Amino acid sequence: MRAFPRYTATVAASCLLAALGCGPDQPSPTAPDDRPAAAVSATAAALSFFQLSAGWMRTCGVTTDNRAYCWGDNAQGYLGDGTRTDRVSPTAVVGGLHFRQITTGADFTCGVTTDFRAYCWGYGGRGVLGNGQTAEHDSPVAVVGGHQFRQLDAGFDHVCGVSYPDNRVYCWGGNRDGQLGIGTRTGPETCIADVGNLGACSTKPVLIASTLTFRQVATGWYHSCAVTTDDRLFCWGLNSSGQVGDSTTAFRQAKPSRVGRSQLWKQVDGGKDFTCAVTTAQQAFCWGNGGVGQIGNGHTYLSFWPRPVSGNHAFRRVTAGGVHACGETPSNVAWCWGGYFVLSNGTTVGSLTPAAVPGGLFFSQVSAGYGQICGRTPAAVGYCWGNNTNGELGIGQADFAPHPNPTPIGPPS
Length: 413
Hints:
Elements lengths: L8 H6 L34 E6 L3 E6 L4 E5 L14 E6 L6 E6 L3 E6 L4 E5 L14 E6 L6 E6 L3 E6 L5 E6 L14 E6 L2 E11 L6 E6 L3 E6 L4 E6 L13 E8 L5 E6 L3 E6 L4 E6 L12 E7 L8 E4 L3 E5 L5 E5 L12 E6 L8 E4 L3 E5 L5 E5 L16 E6 L5
Antiparallel strand pairs: 1-2, 2-3, 3-4, 5-6, 6-7, 7-8, 9-10, 10-11, 11-13, 12-13, 14-15, 15-16, 16-17, 18-19, 19-20, 20-21, 22-23, 23-24, 24-25, 26-27, 27-28, 28-29
């Protein structure tokens, strides 16, 4: 199975729709205290999930007993099981670590342990593993710098996290488009992103150019956003399609720029070149590239500022993938929109406005990936649907057949 393509102009142009899903991979930026009261330990039976993260041709999850599992493409150690073998069923991340949250980047994975330490594994180019190096690792390596983190989010070639207990945002990895938020697109290092391809990066966490405190951070392909502890929203990085959402047409913003000044914000998530967020009044907004309906308002234009998602649904959380997005309501009903090549609404067509996820299931958390969507029910049962070319659905097989309906994730291998 092929690995995620490296960051080059050719790849960026040819992979317009080959988008990374950067869903809101964490159920909460605080301690995981909403797990089911009767949490079932992971056994030979199907796993009980607290959180799922769907990414590029693979999926990862944290069980209710704080163990991490991944499945799907494993070309460069993305699954963290100590091998380079693809998996069609959940396989345990090695190292004996206990996780509170996990997030899947383009060709790497990161997680936060129960003691608030950050670890990453997979492809190390552009410094995405945060360990001061650019080498590949097929098992977890510690992020350097001595920081503790509440929550991490992984994009195409960078990671951002909210520190604990001081609630500052640190980022590392690629910075060609200002996605690290440090106020410049240069330095602090130059990393080899691919053969003959150099770019600004940081192999270690760096503090963004802001003195504000934050409670949640999210990354898209080459942009980042974060919600402050007083409910303001800031974004930075590439703005070619309006994904920063600050109402300007600046091609990039190298430091945090405020979004939606008339709203108070609760949660945000970045997709490929668009962004979605939820206000404290539980209204969903999206902005950026709406070419296939990922803005969710019935139109297909670019938007450089937040636009309300259609349907008057109250949303608790949203997740943005490649060219599709989903959200869960306070009553655990999941709705998805956009993405004609992602089976986000039980068909192969997609939708310009929110469509209910088929099957009559209720979801406490949903994560939109590249070609798949995964979610967990209030009973901690994991489901995935969509593409399964590399076994990213975790159902014990890989195939090219579309899976338009949620299918239970199988037992671990």
